[in-house]
Amino acid sequence: MSPRVALALGSGGARGFAHIGVIEVLGERGLEVVAVAGSSVGALVGGVMAAGRLKEFTEWVVGLKQRDVLRLFDPKWSSPGMITADRLIDHLGGFLGDTLIEDLPIPYTAVATDITARREVWFQKGSLRSAIRASIAIPGLITPMLADGRVLADGGLLNPVPIDPTASAQADLTVAVSLLARRPDHETGAPIRIAAHTRHPGSLRLADVITSSLDAMQDMIARYRMAGLPPDVHIAVPVSAGRVMDFHRAAEMISLGRDLATAALDDAGL
């Protein structure tokens, strides 16, 4: 009998295409995913996988060029976020249709954050597309979703690597994929001291500042939460692998996910 896996897919923007490579390696090794939970891009990739459309989705994202990515995101400078992502969600309709979460062949959870109530929201039924839309709303970049009087944003704000929604799954092991691993020169937990005369780098963009700040916060939250509920296999993608909005680098991220998954599963004897 194939080992059964509960899969937790973390948040981290375009680095999340590494999730595809991880899923591919799990399948090639005969590991059966029996439950999946995701935050942000993890909810997106996990949802497409659960719907059985990962192959078609992968073919599409690998072909994306930078100009294609720009067309998918609608700038709205006067809204509570620079991007609406409506075109992206509309395009996902071609893969997901009107699929309901409760009709998926495996248990699926998309994690979002109710930023008014300051608590997690777990989508385990209803529209798959709507659940993904709520979970991917990166604060300051992608507009939040309004639903039933709630303001819903990126699930990674409170649960960057959502292991807990899979805890009840009939699985042999839990595999967690984080997209927030520290850069090698930041391994120490000591604070970095910067001279007072350091000048602001002119190359920094607003999106970089926002996403780097979120990465730092979510990395700390993820490490604390995984300490309380550790996975059997932890696959960690470093933040230096790519920027949050580098969606045109799918092939590279998928390959990285495959390499990291292979190494982690080898270490675990799987």
Explain what the structure shows.
This protein is an alpha/beta fold and 270 residues long. 36% of the residues lie in helices and 18% in strands. The chain is built from 8 helices and 8 strands. Strands 1, 2, 3, 4, 5, 6, 7 and 8 form an 8-stranded mixed β-sheet that branches. The longest helix has 23 residues, at 206-228. It is globular, with a radius of gyration of 18 Å. It starts with a strand and ends with a helix.
In DSSP terms (H or I, runs of 4 or more residues), the helix count works out at 8
SS elements, strand count: 8
Note the beta-strand portion: 15-25%
Uncertain regions spanning at least 5 consecutive residues: 185-203
Going by helix content, strand content and strand pairing, the class is: alpha/beta
* Main pleated-sheet profile: 8 strands, mixed
Mean pLDDT: 85
CA radius of gyration is 18 Å
Element string (H = helix, E = strand): EHEHHHHEEHEEEHEH
- Residue share in helix: 25-40%
Shape: globular
Distance between the termini: 14 Å
